[in-house]
Amino acid sequence: MKLQQLLSYTRKAVDEYDMIQEGDHIAIGISGGKDSLTLLYAMQGLRRFYPKHFELSAITVDLGYEKCDFSQVTELCKELDVPYQIVKTDIARILFDERKESNPCSLCAKMRKGALNEAVKKMGCNKVAYAHHKDDIIETMLLSLIFEGRFHSFSPKTYLDRMDLSVIRPMMFVDEMDVIGFQHKYNLPVVKSRCPVDGFTKRQYAKDLVRELNQAHPGAKNRMFTAILNGNIEGWPPRTPHTR
């Protein structure tokens, strides 16, 4: 996937779900993975031509794993002229050394988001952009169906009233395979995950299930995504398709 195509998908999401307003200061949450680094390129590119002017900052919540080097991410942010901040935490130590969690994902996500949102507010941002793509939305829907008994997935944009902060997901129309292609084409400085349960989670199960379903029934993944967009899911904002 070329940058121009990435920007087209991003613009589509931002327009159809009214994600950006004039004068916004948007923080990009960067884990160091391929998705968040692709989002960095997308938002920096969008900033150059989008009719509504907005500021960008980038932030990483360092979970405290050893050998996580974000120096190349720092250099990339300098190249793209996006201010970048790393917030140090002891989340990894708390999860695995103190609590010895066998299923740490839910607690980890809660602690990570709490640290991120608090830092974002201190930076003066009113919005934070997450790098969830189309596959993430579909996988979340499947997890909700299988383990919660409801048809649900996270919203393109959400207002957190307790934090007075909005969350947006500008890559919601981007396929994960396109992200992988973008990563290789632009040689993104990916920071390898050091989490000991990476690849052994319920989300990985859902990812494998989506792939199997799509192989057995070509087009199934896109049909599931269409069902989500048209599903009137509680909490989702209205969609306004744009044609340009």
Overview of this protein structure:
- By secondary structure, this protein is of the alpha/beta class.
- The chain has a single domain (3-137, 153-196), classed as Rossmann fold.
- The chain contains nine helices and six strands.
- It has helices at residues 3-16, 34-49, 71-79, 91-98, 105-122, 134-148, 176-185, 202-216, 220-229; strands spanning 25-29, 55-62, 84-88, 127-129, 157-160, 165-168.
- A six-stranded mixed sheet has the order 3-2-1-4-6-5, with helices on both faces.
- Helix 2 links the parallel strand 1 and strand 2.
- Helix 1 packs across helix 2 (34-49) and helix 6 packs across helix 9.
- The model has no long low-confidence stretch (mean pLDDT 92).
Shape: globular
Main structural class: alpha/beta
Main pleated sheet = 6 strands, mixed
Rounded to the nearest angstrom, the distance between the terminal CA atoms is 21 Å
- Name the quaternary structure: single chain
CATH class: Alpha Beta
How many distinct helices? 9
List unreliable stretches of 5+ residues.
Answer: none
Strand residue content? 5-15%
Number of strands: 6
For the biggest β-sheet, the strand order reads 3-2-1-4-6-5
CATH superfamily: HUPs
N-to-C SSE series? HEHEHEHHEHEEHHH
Radius of gyration: 18 Å
